[in-house]
Task: inverse folding
């Protein structure tokens, strides 16, 4: 090969290298702690599914914005009948799924009918309980008829459990999700990463990134090492809050600390003795020192709660006074309930740091009043199978990150098996009410009811900490739903 040819080739090689570097510069590696057990947001309960796929790959009729507001999604607008029973959705025209098939009213009907079907495996089937009928008028118009007014209906349709899917691709959705979002699913290397690529045919504002890779790092020490070495560009839900100060003082990084909808609870199996006794549940609640848990497990990140409701919601009612830390009163309640010497139970913990670290602290607090909590650490799929679906547990710790999800307490088959008829009646009145003031009062009644029944031990509202490279813009500060929305994320270089 002569020198002249090499001289001609060199600029071409440099140009190709620069093009590759530029392409790499427009990608992102984002880490989260938990890997999804599957990729079907309409059939799985794991938060991690929405963390990867919500808005990025799948979309609903409505959607949540970063500030928690509900806005138009695949429905560009809608009409509501005067009696509140009929919603006529006008769909965006020209929307396609990632496989090229058109998204139309038939897909909306399929999705809503599937979610509310008797054999539905949707984890939030209650969102669709008031739907009486879904009918197609034309390809861009669908009418949803409710059996009763539901003031939360548009809010419910923004959940990840209510995204629109297609019958043509539903068979493989758990491993090959095909949606309408700004990113397309590319690859899933289980145990390591999920890869997304920009959807060039997206109906709305195109994604600003060319590609995104989600990596799963559950161990806090490994998380710290990955961020510090800049192996990842952002870690959303950083699991080692003790390291945040170090990142804040490092000019390479930015630290974002926002709020979530995550009510972190010590869940009790109300269908299993001795937790079917309200005195025992109250004793457990009084044995808990919330601030000790927040300081010890979360290094101060978290807001104490006395019921299953987010403190930043205007309808929140402060009920902490119902369950102060009072070990002596807890012991007296146990004796009154017939357990003067305490009892032994299970404490099954999923992988997140708040659960594993918090579980050790809570076990010690319970031991002080005579309750022995035998800890079992479970992987996420095991937790879903044993605790969430199998209800095979005494106690567990989990953060409920779904937005304003207090309605789960009306479901007697939910994993903590409460389903009190009086509480269900409150929720029925709430669903039928559209007046904002009356709705707020009913929400406060609901909060009070579950707090006075000591259904669970209410710990704290989960904060979300994100550590990212300083040049990265567009990440959500707060999480109004469990999502890592990358649709507006971009590099400022």
Result:
């Amino acid at each position: 090969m002569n020198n002249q040819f090499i001289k001609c080739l060199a600029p071409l090689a440099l140009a190709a290298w620069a093009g590759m570097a530029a392409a790499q510069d427009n990608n992102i590696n984002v880490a989260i702690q938990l890997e999804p057990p599957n990729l079907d947001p309409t059939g799985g309960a794991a938060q991690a599914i929405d963390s990867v796929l919500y808005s990025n790959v799948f979309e609903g009729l409505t959607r949540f914005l970063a500030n928690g507001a509900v806005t138009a999604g695949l429905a560009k607008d809608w009409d509501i009948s005067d009696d509140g029973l009929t919603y006529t959705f006008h769909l965006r025209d020209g929307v396609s799924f990632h496989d090229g098939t058109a998204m139309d009213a038939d897909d909306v009907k399929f999705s809503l009918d599937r979610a509310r079907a008797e054999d539905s495996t949707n984890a939030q089937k209650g969102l669709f309980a008031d739907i009486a009928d879904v009918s197609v008028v034309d390809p861009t118009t669908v009418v949803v008829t409710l059996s009763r007014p539901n003031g939360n209906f548009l809010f419910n349709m923004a959940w990840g459990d209510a995204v629109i899917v297609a019958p043509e691709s539903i068979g493989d959705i758990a491993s090959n999700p095909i949606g309408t979002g700004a990113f397309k699913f590319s690859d899933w290397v289980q145990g390591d990463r999920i890869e997304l690529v920009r959807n060039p045919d997206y109906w709305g504002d195109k994604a600003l990134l060319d590609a995104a890779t989600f990596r799963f790092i559950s161990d806090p020490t490994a998380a710290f090492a990955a961020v510090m070495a800049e192996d990842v560009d952002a870690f959303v839900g950083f699991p080692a809050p003790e390291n945040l100060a170090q990142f804040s003082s490092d000019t390479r990084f930015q630290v974002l600390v926002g709020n979530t909808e995550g009510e972190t609870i010590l869940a009790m199996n109300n269908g299993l003795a001795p937790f079917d006794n309200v005195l025992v549940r109250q004793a457990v609640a009084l044995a808990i020192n919330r601030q000790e848990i927040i300081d010890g497990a979360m290094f101060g990140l978290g807001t104490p709660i006395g019921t299953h409701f987010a403190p930043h919601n205007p309808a929140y009612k402060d009920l902490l006074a119902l369950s102060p830390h009072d070990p002596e009163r807890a012991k007296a309640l146990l004796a009154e309930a017939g357990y003067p010497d305490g009892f032994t139970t299970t404490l099954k913990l999923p992988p997140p740091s708040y659960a594993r670290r918090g579980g050790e602290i809570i076990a010690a607090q319970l031991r002080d009043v005579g309750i022995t909590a035998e800890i079992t650490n479970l992987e996420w799929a095991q937790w879903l199978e044993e605790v969430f679906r199998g209800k095979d547990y005494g106690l567990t710790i989990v953060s409920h990150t779904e937005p304003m999800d207090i309605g789960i307490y009306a479901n007697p088959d939910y994993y903590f098996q409460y389903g009190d008829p009086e509480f269900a009646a409150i929720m029925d009145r709430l669903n039928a009410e559209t007046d904002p003031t009356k709705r707020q009062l009913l929400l406060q009644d609901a909060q009070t009811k579950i707090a006075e029944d000591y259904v669970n031990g209410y710990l704290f509202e989960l904060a979300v900490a994100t550590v990212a490279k300083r040049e990265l813009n567009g990440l959500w500060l707060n999480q109004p739903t469990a999502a890592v929305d990358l649709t507006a994320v971009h590099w400022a270089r």
